[in-house]
Amino acid sequence: MPTSTTAAGSNSDLVTRLNSPDAEVQLKALRELKNRIIGNRTKKLSFVKLGLVPAVAAILASKAQAQAQAQAQPQPDHDSNLLVQSAAVLGSFACGFDAGARAVLDAGACPNLFLLLSHPDDKVVDAGARSLRMIYQSNMAPKCDFLQDKNMEFLLSLLNSDNENVTGLGASIVIHSCETTAEKKALCHAGVLKKLISLLEGSPSQRDNSLESLATIMKSNVEAVSEFVGCESGRALSSVIELTKDRYPRTRFLASMCLIAVRNTSSCYLQDIGIKTKLVHLLLELHEDPGQVGDEAPFAFSSLISHKVDLQKLALEANAIDKLYNHLQKNRLNPKRFQGILLALADLCSKLESCRSRFLSLQALNLVSEALTHDSSDVRTAACICLRCVSRSIKNLCAGNFMNEMIVPPLVRLLDDPSTSVQVAALCAVGNIIVDFTTDRSLFLQCGGVKQLVQLSKSMDSTLRLNALWALRNLMCLADYMCKLGTFMELTASSLASLICDPEPFVQEQALALIRNLVDGCMESVELVFAEDDIILDAVGRQLQCVSRDEIWIQGLYVLSNVASGNEFHKEAVMHQLVPQADNGAQSFILKFLQSNESQLRIAAVWTIINLTFPSSPSACSRFVKLHNAGIVSQVKSMVNDPCPDVKLRVRTALGQFTTLNDGAT
Amino acid sequence: MSFFLSSTIDQAYHQLAQIEAELKAAMAGSKKIITREEWEKKLNDVKIKKEDMNKLVMNFLVTEGYVDAAEKFRKESGTEPDIDLATITDRMAVKKAVQCGNVEDAIEKVNDLNPEILDTNPQLFFHLQQQRLIELIRNGKVEEALEFAQEELAPRGEENQSFLEELERTVALLAFEDVSNCPVGELLDISQRLKTASEVNAAILTSQSHEKDPKLPSLLKMLIWAQNQLDEKAHYPRINDLSTARLEDPNV
C-alpha cells in the first residue's frame, strides 16, 4: 500500500533526525513525534516497535546530566526546550499504554526525569513531573520502597513542593506503590497522611490526588483511619464528607472512595444511617457519568455493600437493582462498566432473597444470559458470578427457573472457556444451578455438562478440580440412581480414588463429599464404592487414618456412615475399615473422632455406629461385640452428657440400640 | 447590576429560602402582593460586597477568554484573576485556531500547553481529528481526507463504537455532490467548529484547575427559577428583561 511506504519512510527519517547533532533538528523531530503519538495508541505502538524510545531517552539523558553538572547554572534555551519536549514524548509513550511505559522504563528514563524536578525552569519541572506521573499511573512502574528512609524523604519533598504537578507526582507514587500494612504505617509515621490531609485544601487537582492517596493508605489500615478520623478533632473527616457534595463528579467519587475505606477498615466509624444512605445514593448517581467515574462507580458500589446486609437493604430501598438494570440495558456498554454492573448486581443478590426476587422480576436474567457469550472474558466471568449469587434463591431453584435453554447451554459452553477465571466462575454457577430439588437435570446432561465437569475434575489446575468436584457433589445431591450411575461411569472408580488422595486437601474434601452424596440413598448406589476391588472404600479408610484435617474426616466418616446404612455386606465392609482384623494393639481411628473437640466430627462418628448397630439387621449383635471389644461402645456410653445437643441426641439413639442388642444377647 | 444577586450560589439559595419561608408564613391561601417600595426595601437589606461582584465579573471575563478586558478590569477594580492571564492568551489562540479551521495548529498548541489533555481525553481528541477531517473535505482534498480518515481516525473507531459511528457520518460527506443539502451537511456548518472549539476550551480550563463554565450564567438561571417559584405565591416587582434588570410593577 502506498500510504504505508510513505509512513515508514518518514518514520525512519524521524530516527535519523532524533540522532542528529543539530539541536534544532532534534527539537523539531521531538515536537513532530509528540504531536503524532499523543492520543494515538496505534502510533505509540508502531514507534515503540521502531525503537524510537531509546533515541528520545538518550536526548533527555545527555541534556539532563549536563544540566545537573552545571548545577543550576542557566543553560541555553534550546536545552530547556529539548528537555521539555523529550520529557513530554516519553510521558506520552507511557500514558495509558503499558507497552510504552515498559519501553520508557527499559530505556532508563526515570532517573533522568527525576533530575528535571530540580531544574530552575518551571516549565522543565512541569514537564518532568507530568511525565513521571504518567509512568507511575502504569502498572509497569517499579514500586517505590517506602521503608527506605531516603525514599520516604524524597516522597515528602515531592508532597511539600509548591508545584502542583510535583505534588501530583507524589500522590501518584503513593497510589501506585503503597500496598502492605507496613508501608502504610511507615507513611503515617513519616507524616505523609497529615500532609495529604492538608492538600485537601489545595487546588481541585491536588484535592483529588489527596483523596485517592488517602483512600489507598487507609484501606485495611486501622491505624491510619484512626489518625485520619482524629485529625483536628474530625475536621478532615468532615471536609471529606463535604466533598461528596462537590460539583465535580470525580471529586465526589474519590471522596466516597475515601469514606468507604474508612468504613470498611474500622466498623466503628460512619455507621449512622444518614451517611450510609448518602453513600448509596451518591454512588448510584455516579453510575450516570459517561466517563471514567461511571466506569469505576460500580466497583466502588460493590465494595460499599459487599458482605453487608444492612447496606444491601438500603440499596434495595434506593431502587439500586432497577437502576443498575437500566444501565445494563444500554447498548454498547464498555466492557469494564458492563463487568462492574454485573458484579454490583451479584453483590446485591448475594445475601437477600428480596433482592434476588426484584432482580428476577425485572427479567434481568435475559441480559445476564447474553453476557455469558460476551467477547470480554471479564464480562463472562462477571455474568457467571452474578448467576451464582442469584441462583442462591432456593425458591427459584425449586421452581426450576435456572434449568432452562436460556441459561444452561451457554453456561456449559463456558466450562470449556480458554480463560481459567471464566471456567472457575462458570463451575460455581453450575454448582448452584444443578442443586435442583424438584425438576430433573436432564437438560444439563443433554448439554454434555457431566462430561465437562468430569473432565475438569482431572484438570492440572487445583482450583478447577476443586470447583468441578463441588459441582459434581451438588449434582449428586438427592439425584436418582440413573443420574448417579451415569456420572460414576464417566468419573470411574480409580480416578475418584486418586482424587480422594489429591495433593490438595480442599480437593480431597470435595472428592469425599461427592462420594458421600453418591452413596446416599438407595442400595444400588451404595454398591458403587465397591467397584474395582473396593478401591474407593480403601482410599477413604486410608484418608481417615493418615490425614489430620477435621473437614476431610467429617466427609470421610459420612461416606462410611452412608455405606453402613446399606445391607449386611456393606456394613461388614465398614466394620473391616473401623476395627482392624489383625489384633496388633492398634486403636480404632473412630475412637479419636468420638473424642474430638469438633462436634460435627463426633456426630458423624456416632451416626456410623448407629448404622452399624441397627438392631433389626442380622449380624448387628456380632458387630456390637466387636465394637465393644474395641472399646468403642464404652466411649459412646461416656458421651451421654455431651455438651452438644445434637451429639447427645444421637448418642441416646445409639445407647437405645445397645440396650436392645444387650437384651437380645442375654 | 441592581438585581437580587449574591456572590455565591449557596447564599442565593439561603436568601431565597428565607423569602420563601416569610411568604409561606404570610400567605393565607391567596397570593400576597408586594409593592415596589416593600420589595426595594427588602433588596436593599441584602448586603452584597462590591468585591464579590467584581470577582464574578472577573470570573466571567477569564472563563470566556476576554484577556484584554480582564487586564483592564484588573487595573481598574484591583480584582486579581484566579488564573495567570498569560494562559488565557494561549487558550484563546487554540480556540481561535479551531474556529478558523486550523485544527492541526490547534492540536499542536494544546500539546505544547499540556500534553496530558489530549492523551487522557479520547473523546476530545477524536472530535478534533474529526474536525480536521471535516476541514479537509470542506477544502475538496478528497484523497488526503480519505488517507487521513484511514490512518488516523479508523483506529480510534476500532477502539470505540460511538467514534466509529461518528466517523461513518463524517465520511458520508464525501458521497454527496451538493454537501450543503445532504443529510450530514450540518457537520460543515460553522456551529460544528464552535462546538469543537468550546470543547477544547473547557478541557484546557479543567486542566488548569479552573471551572469550565462562568458562574454568572448559572446565577441568572437561578434568578429565573426563583422568580418562577415566587410567581406561584406572590405578586411582586419582577425582572423580565435580564439585560436591563428593570423591576416591572406587579400587574394585579
UniProtKB/TrEMBL annotation, chain A:
InterPro entries membership: ARM-like, ARM-type_fold, Armadillo, ARMC8/Vid28
Signal peptide bounds: none
Keywords assigned: Cytoplasm, Nucleus, Repeat
One Gene Ontology cellular component: cytoplasm
Membrane-crossing residue ranges in chain numbering: none
Pfam family, one: Arm
Predominant place of localization: cytoplasm
SUPFAM superfamilies: ARM repeat
Gene Ontology annotations of biological process type: proteasome-mediated ubiquitin-dependent protein catabolic process
Location of this chain's protein in the cell: Cytoplasm; Nucleus
PANTHER family attached to this UniProt entry: ARMADILLO REPEAT-CONTAINING PROTEIN 8 (PTHR15651)
Name of the protein described by the UniProt record: Armadillo repeat-containing protein 8
Organism of this sequence: Rubus argutus (Southern blackberry)
Automatic annotation (TrEMBL), chain B:
InterPro entries listed in its UniProt record: CRA_dom (IPR013144), CTLH/CRA (IPR024964), CTLH_C (IPR006595), LisH (IPR006594), Ubq-SigPath_Reg (IPR050618)
Organism: Rubus argutus
Domain CTLH: 87-144
A Pfam family hit: CTLH
Protein name in the entry: CTLH domain-containing protein
Superkingdom of the organism of origin: Eukaryota
